[in-house]
Design brief:
Largest sheet: 6 strands, mixed
CATH topology: Transcription Regulator spoIIAA
Number of strands: 6
Shape: globular
Number of domains: 1
Number of helices: 4
Strand content: 25-35%
Structural class: alpha/beta
Distance between the termini: 28 Å
Order of helices and strands: EEEHEHEHEH
Oligomer: single chain
CATH superfamily: STAS domain
Radius of gyration: 14 Å
CATH architecture: 2-Layer Sandwich
Length: 132
């Protein structure tokens, strides 16, 4: 049975789209959809949620970022925290559908060497797992 949860958090800056996190538990993975602006005000919640999910018995977390239009360094830190917790439990975090500006940020910070990035959710779900 698939369960979906949605959390909407206020990004904190006038004109920002509200930041939201949707989580769907599937048999093969936990899929997380991020949307809006991930500012410093809400980045801690992103990190906490990803660490919580990475601590659960799910071998794969896929973060779909198609709806994310902005992320600050503190948000990147939250993604890294989730990644580190997932590796501790021998799980994997994959990223999907990064906007060009966000993908460029990941390249500049070399996070593309840490995360596997896919064009589509289907591609991310179908990819072979990485080794331990």
């Amino acid at each position: 049975m698939m369960a979906m949860q949605t959390e909407e958090l206020n990004g904190g800056y006038k004109g920002d789209k509200p930041f939201s996190i949707e989580v769907e538990h599937r048999p093969e993975a936990v899929v997380v959809w991020l949307a809006g602006s991930c500012t410093m005000t809400v980045a801690a919640q992103l990190g906490e949620r990803l660490v919580q999910l990475a601590s659960e018995p799910a071998p794969l977390i896929v973060v779909d970022m198609a709806g994310l239009d902005f992320i600050e360094s503190t948000g990147l830190g939250g993604l890294v925290a989730g990644y580190l917790r997932s590796r501790r439990y021998r799980n994997e975090v994959r990223l999907v559908s990064l906007q060009p500006s966000i993908h460029h940020l990941f390249e500049l910070t070399r996070l593309t060497q840490l995360f596997r990035v896919f064009d589509t959710l289907d591609d991310a779900l179908a990819a072979e797992p990485i080794g331990p």
